[in-house]
Specification:
It contains twelve helices and 22 strands. The protein has a single domain, classed as Penicillin V Acylase, Chain A. By secondary structure, it is α+β, with helices and mostly antiparallel strands. α1 packs parallel to α2 and α5 runs antiparallel to α6. The strands form five sheets. It has a ten-stranded mixed sheet with strand order 1-2-3-7-10-11-12-13-14-15, sandwiched between helices. A six-stranded antiparallel sheet has the order 16-4-5-18-19-22. It has a two-stranded antiparallel ribbon with strand order 6-17. A hairpin with a 3-residue loop joins β11 and β12.
Length: about 450
Amino acid sequence: GNRVAKCVSGNYLFIVLRHYILAWAYLEVTTSGRYNDSIQAYAAGAVEADLTSQVQLALLQLKGLEDGYNNQLSFPTGPFTFNPFGFLLFQMGGDVEDLEGALNKSSRSRTLGSGSCSAFIKLLPGNKDLLVSHDTWSNYQSMLRILKKYMFSYHLSPTDSDPIPGGTQAFSSYPGSIYSGDDFYILSSGLVTMETTIGNSNPSLWKFVQPTGAVMEWLRNIVANRLAANGKEWAEIFSKHNSGTYNNQWMIVDYKHFTPGMTETKEQLFTVLEQIPGLVVHTDKTQQLLQKSYWSSYNIPFYEEVFNASGYRELVEQFGPVFSIDMNPRAQIFKRNQSHVTDMDSMVRLMRFNNFKQDPLSRCEGCDPPGNGENTISARSDLNPANGTYPFGALKQRSHGGIDMKVTSYGQWREFGFLAVSGPTWDQVPVFQWSSSPYPDLMHMGHPDKWAFQPVQVTWST
């Protein structure tokens, strides 16, 4: 059903439209430029509970969310604090995974070799369109989802009246989170930004994770999305104060530099950034995208410097090509199937692809049975036999896999539109159903039992 909620507090009014369709909830939050940025940020957080300057604004928004949830709205006029195990922890999920390693936690929440998202960018034949897509991989308990659109009339700084380039953002997200976390964003700056996690397997790098002089990744992500007008600016802003946590490969597509049928673009269309503790590398990869017609991302560093420094060379020596940039199963499947992508529908099929029992590229060296539900574009690790033999943890039976798909195009980004599918893939494999899965007792409050949902065209009311 549909629900329109209004939040009036003092002199500011927000209208939020929420509706629930095909396993996605929708949320739109708009702020008014008549009020200063601090009031806007705090009130934006308060509305969502019912349902440097930019870092401060993000934290104010989070404070508003926490206070609204607790029904204790009171705009902070001085320093403020958070419940460290409340909404702040929601934002820090990715950062915490790497903090566990940096602080020598004996049992890590991130499984060795675990995929955490697939991403794919495709220039269609004749450069008639540029499609940008992303699959989130996560545990199945995290499938309570919200598609959000923020329209914030923030300014570049307290003394600069110019609006921020990324004031309007559409993204896939979760209850209680003020950013994506997947990550996948469409921005009013013309940028589409997304990432897949590469992690860090080199313990000697954890010394670069320090409590001072660093900003957590989730905040640098928010600030770069708001302030950057192009891919180079995004990378430069994000690179400052590297925390060495939530270590990802980021892809920044700038649709302002794409025209259907184009032949002239030399650079600025596509930027790739990779972060690990103590190191951030970013370059313009427009020419590679134009020459190959695609870019695929599958949780393995592209830059050799990052690959070597983060311990992937040793992982290849220990476990084989599953950890290599060229011979990883997803690398090979993307290379084999990319030419089949000719429109949005075929892109959805690629990003939902999982035929692990028949696909020779999904075979796992040292696995019994040989086909593995993790070794494909949209994982279904729940379908791996519990009594199988596997060389490392990510290949075992787990409540884990691809939990969504998002794809946008040149024709859709201006309206912040995209296609989205919620839930594990069921194109070539059985539908995921909690009650008949190996995990009926895992908490999944608010979830449907059966996840047989079709793609939905995401549109917004404003």
